[in-house]
């Protein structure tokens, strides 16, 4: 009997009788002879009976070119979604000039639109788990454009503006935020900070472009026509972009267990930090145009100041993300961003009574604000892992809701 056959028969007879049915699940192949080969046969499982690959097997290759379309799609979505949020101050200024309502009331409408995203974060995370990122983002694009288009017939009614610019727009923003913020991070490891920075930089660029063009567009046409154009533009950008928000296989993530996270000290620290830091974040984009008008500057100048803040925000998102990858690390970069926000608000804005001082305030404040938003997914991924990115981000966003809504108090006084 050949040695290979003898080895296979010996192994088969050495198995217990109660396990003889193993032959139905495995087959024994003799090892081909070579100088380094062992004489023990190889045990191979059938491919159709093997277990699914472990998550680690799907993480072997990162930073591939297939991830950059997701980065471009996320950046395009933030261009229109956060661009509209940060440019709401222009709409608010024209509504105040038409004497629709008080500053606090109109600011509250804008706050609702911005706060819907963090408020519904955990709900959206479960929607993503059920339907996937593409379908969730597509639905978000529909609601986002619908909120802007219907707002063109609502500029004479506060309740109607609340429903359109607040609720409908906010639902769309909520459904867009998590897919656009988390999917690009799932494709990258070494360049995760840079990729996320590019995604969030779309918000700064979009805000600058919309802020500069919206005021002129309103002057040429009307506020109603401008809102309609913004809504159609939102559809044209966000709906095609949603197609490219596809998570790589095995990295779709799960919804984190709430009770387990609340026993995690690192999560509690991030929860407290995010809730406190969010309070001043939307004050500049909401207030700068109105503040510029209060010190005697024109609406065009106010729009230019807001554009400067948004450009600085875009630079901060990319720069802080690159710094997090290259030498600073995610947490150190986040701390620097928070320091820029606080110091500029305390040391510069109280004395900014001219164009030069307002721009001088806008640059560091915009850099810090942009860095904060772009670094949050990077920090979460580095601490909790990309598998829990969507779930943890959803919970952190939900507990930042109070800061988004409290911007109304800041704009009242």
Automatic annotation (TrEMBL):
InterPro entries: MFS (IPR011701), MFS_dom (IPR020846), MFS_trans_sf (IPR036259), Proton-linked_MCT (IPR050327). GO terms for molecular function: transmembrane transporter activity. It is a multi-pass membrane protein. Residues 28-61 are annotated as: Disordered. Coiled coil: none annotated. It is found in: Membrane. This is Putative monocarboxylate transporter. Residues 266-413 form the Major facilitator superfamily (MFS) profile domain. It comes from the Eukaryota. PROSITE patterns: MFS (PS50850). The keyword Transmembrane helix applies. The chain crosses the membrane at residues 70-91, 103-125, 137-156, 162-181, 193-214, 226-245, 265-283, 303-322, 334-363, 375-399.
